[in-house]
């Protein structure tokens, strides 16, 4: 999932789907500096990562985000952030205690 989001083009597609809701490949290509083929390739990579899914609407497919995977990523990043916060608290306490010992 993070590898899929690590690509700037894919991240722009995800951001666009967040802002606009479900879009067709034609709409996703509008204003993008990519061909339909490139957008399709990126959508399939995002789909393989479980981040987007497509649904048929008449003659075209609409692509939408699958929020479950993004929520999973958010939880994971929250855990990492909490660990970093704890490590920084410990580091601050260590630096402050060494400063008192030297005084």
From TrEMBL:
PROSITE patterns: HTH_ARSR_2. SUPFAM superfamilies: Winged helix' DNA-binding domain. It comes from the Bacteria. One of its GO terms (molecular function) is DNA-binding transcription factor activity. InterPro entries: ArsR-like_HTH, HTH_ArsR_DNA-bd_dom, WH-like_DNA-bd_sf, WH_DNA-bd_sf. Residues 1-85 form the HTH arsR-type domain. It holds the Pfam family HTH_20. NCBIfam families: HTH_metalloreg (NF033788). This is Metalloregulator ArsR/SmtB family transcription factor. It comes from Paraburkholderia tagetis. The lineage of its organism: Bacteria, Pseudomonadati, Pseudomonadota, Betaproteobacteria, Burkholderiales.
